[in-house]
Every structure is written in C-alpha cells, then in structure tokens.
C-alpha cells in the first residue's frame, strides 16, 4: 500500500467515526421518508431521485405532499427557498474552511446539510479529504436510508416514530462539546438568546431564519469585541 492509499484509508476511517451520529439519524429519517413515499404510492424512482438531486430532508418530505396534491413549480421553488435559506448562513461560516478546496468544492457546497456542517465545522483540524469524505458518507447515508425505507417499509412491524430525535441529540452533544472547549462563551449565549427570542416571537415553524439573521447581526455588531479572544482562538 503506497502513501496515497494509506492516507485515503486513514481519512475515510476518521470521517466514518465523525459521521456515525449522522448515520444513525439519517437512516431513521431516511427510512421514514422511504416508508412515506411507498405508502403514498410513488415509484421508487421518486424518493431515490429526490434524495440524489435535492438532498434536503425537509424539502423532500414537503415535496412528496406537493407532488401528491398536484405539482406547482412556483410553489415548489418558493418552498425550497424558504426551507433551505438557512444554508446561506452555513455557507458564510464555511468560506474560510472551503477556500482552496479545488475540485472538492462543488460537492462540499452541494452536500452542506445541517448535520454535515455541524460535523465539519466542529472538526477544526480536518484535512480537505476528511471533510469531503464526511460529506460523501452523509450523502450515502441519506440515500441508502430512503431506499431501505421504500423497499422494506411494508415489512416493518415496529413504530419508528420519534427516533429522528437522535439528530437533535447529536446537535446538543456537539454544542456542549464546543461550549466546554471554548473559553469565550459570548457567541454561544448570543445564539441561545437570539433563538429564544425568535422562537417566542415567530413560533416553532418560522423561527429558524429570523434567529439566524439575529445571530449574524449580533455577531457582526460585536465582532471587534470578540475578535481578540474568540476569533483568534478559532484561527489556531
């Protein structure tokens, strides 16, 4: 085994370990998605194609309902924009991390889901290959989960409702790990505060984008105060 093969194997091993929580969450969510598609009478090509080319769980679940009710392109585009708008903020956060990625960048951008962002952003010492492997593995987890759900959904004899909470648990664990590692906690409290206010004002269905806008504005406003400690720590 030459050095390049050994390096690739090591990167894949590291990426797999980091993405294990995503595997659990994506398989449960994907199976639920596949079961729903099968129960609504869609051919397996529908959920498989949507998983391959849309790769947005929320948009795909909503898309099944829209297809069943009668396809409206304008409504579908509007829905996808609203549901996926939060990824704009993920992209801003990853500008420095994705600089110089070369041929890897297009797929890294395409595969920037909530969970992939959380894993890759939290792993500050990641190599470009490790970040790409995490994105590819997460992508494969979602596709295979949906396919398994569609093919074997009718055979399931147990209730998997609520198992998607594993994704929420993963985000909570990542947040706490980051919180305990950092000496500067003001950005975390800004995030918690803006989210709580947005949740109170806009409700659970519409709070995500206002919360992210508020976080972005607050961090921008206090950037000079945070840069000496927090920003310097991030760059190390």
Model regions low in confidence, pLDDT < 50 over at least 5 residues: 229-236
The counted number of beta strands is 0
SSE order: HHHHHHHHHHHHH
Pairing-aware structural class of the strands and helices?
mainly alpha
The biggest beta sheet is recorded as: none
Q: Estimate the helix proportion, in percent.
A: over 70%
Shape: globular
Radius of gyration (Å)? 19 Å
Report how far the terminal alpha carbons are from each other. Answer: 33 Å
The number of helical runs is 13
Report the mean per-residue pLDDT as an integer. 80
Strand percentage lies at under 5%
Structure notes:
- By secondary structure, the protein is mostly helical.
- The chain contains 13 helices and no strands.
- Helix 1 runs parallel beside helix 9 and helix 3 packs antiparallel against helix 4.
- The chain starts with a helix and ends with a helix.
- The C terminus is likely disordered.
Supply database-style keywords.
236 residues; mainly alpha; 13 helices; 78% helix; globular
What is the secondary structure topology, with strand pairs?
Elements: H1 3-39, H2 45-53, H3 57-69, H4 73-84, H5 87-93, H6 95-98, H7 105-110, H8 114-122, H9 128-152, H10 165-181, H11 186-202, H12 208-221, H13 223-235
How would you summarize this macromolecular structure in one to three sentences?
The chain is mainly α and 236 residues long. The chain contains 13 helices and no strands.
